[in-house]
Hints:
- 15% of the residues lie in helices and 43% in strands.
- It is α+β, with helices and mostly antiparallel strands.
- Strands 1, 2, 3, 4, 5, 6, 7, 8, 9, 10 and 11 form an 11-stranded antiparallel sheet that branches.
- Strand 9 and strand 10 (151-156) form a beta hairpin.
- The chain starts with a helix and ends in a 6-residue tail after the last strand.
- The mean pLDDT is 87.
Amino acid sequence: MISALLTACASAPTAPPPVAVSFRLPPASLGRTLAWQQRLQVTSQGRAQPPLDALLEADAQGLRLALLGTGQTLARLEWDGQSLHAEQAAGWPKEIPAERVLSDMQLALWPLTALQAALPADTTLADEGPLRVLRQHGVVVTTVRDPGTLHIELANQVLGYTLRIDSTPMDGAIR
């Protein structure tokens, strides 16, 4: 009997390791318009990267994001719900693809119900007090503190980085 129990435990299926979840929701599912100037601070492997400035514009037709650093445009991203167009300066880190930037923005800003409808199997997303918690197979993979607000902190445990976003509403739009 002990042998049968040990064999059963040894052959019990284990959950696959968590992977980074990506979102590509239609811009209209945001349900509001945004025109924000932002300061982004990324910490990766315990080291804070130089802060970046960003201009974010989102409406029902699309999301447009420009990332600025050292007085120059480092990256531009446009998402219309069908195609993602991205331009990155030569020094832009390959570890941060445009798809990841879009996904993080959506996880931090889009309504919970829109995000939940796009989740893959064995993945959950819930607002728990000030945190939005994304889990795969019951394991926390990403948290967002104060989602949808002007001051957000996103921690991606799978990819090992933290992103702090401080936003200021602005008049006008970026092009």
